[in-house]
Amino acid sequence: MHDLIIVGGGPAGYRAAELAAGENLKTLLFEERRLGGVCLNEGCIPSKALLFSAKLYDYAKGGAASYGVTCNSAAIDYAAAVRHKDKAVDLLVGSIETSLTKKGVEIIRERAAIQGRDKGVFVVNSHRAPSLLLCSGATPTLPPIAGIESAMTNREILALTEIPETLAIVGGGAAGLEMASLFNSVGCKVTVYEMLDRIAGTFDREISGMLQGICERRGIVFHLNAKVNGISELNADKVLVSIGRKPSTEGLGLENINVHTERGAIVTDDFMKTSQPGVYAAGDVNGKSMLAHTAYREAEVAINNICGKKDMMDYSAIPSVIYTNPEAAGIGETLESAIAKGIEARETKLPMGYSGRYLAENEGMDGICKLVWDRNRLVGAHMLGNPCSEVISTLSAVMHTKMGAEQIKKIVFPHPTVAEIVKEAVYHA
Q: Among this protein's residues, is 400 annotated catalytic?
């Protein structure tokens, strides 16, 4: 008998297991594949390792010349870059397993199936506990088009050890754009097909247009408003399908305990509770904000509530990042979305060059910082330029604590840092 059974060892699952064990809950974790989930093994970490190799190669090929550094005969050993990626992933997976084991979490390497509820406890693969946390993640969405079985998902493309001559990417969202940036940098001819009239999904429209322009100048070809009917029509050596992910609930046994779902996602409230008492869900499986950092926070909320500590999830300050070169980042409302919601919003827009550090390290690079206001309260922020992935966390803290413009002005930023652009933009509001 356990106190808590967790299904899934991705970001939500392993974070929850660590916290639960720290609260002296006897915890059982089911994971049929490797700990870390898609993010660590087939997404966030491996892609960033390879993107860093590509960025270094960009500098070596000529990008560093603007800063007085010349590299002769620059070359990339892509197989070596993949080995570096694998090493980083293996170290992190091992670290998670070691941490969970030291904390006393029991890990079972098999697919979990909920068998039902018996005398007030849940039964999963014949194991029993009064509380159940579902963190089964998500799987790639594959369109019903001819030849789809020959296409790659993020799992297969990150396992490649050779650079294809041509690559077609179906989907111009964050993951597709990152792979486009990566393979374009290492010498592959990349074409992106996007069914919408712009790339980057719900990102700020101006920033998505600027990012597209930068990518096009580097040789990436975009086809917008494009409907793909078959893989063979794309005429590329390799095809990546990256149109999103769907919650992974099939075969989980939710029907045995009557957990409510909508469009395949487990419905949760702000306490991460499902329709059934004692059952919680966190991470991609609830379909709310399918990002690893959201999953971490949802796991914290779930465990706190399981332990009787009231905690609520706040989705209004969740940052998103596209790790292309340059990076794009956003949080909260765009001006367009705010107006659509009836907010009398206004926007502050400032070139990233107002930051001395940015100007010193990003010669010739377009960059912009945009802040969206509801009266004096910040409700959105959007950026293009390196390293906005590091700056956006400052804006997350600002929005989460609901700081006004005058409070933000009192923050002391270290000089010189790119994050100073935030304060500059506030003073220009």
A: no
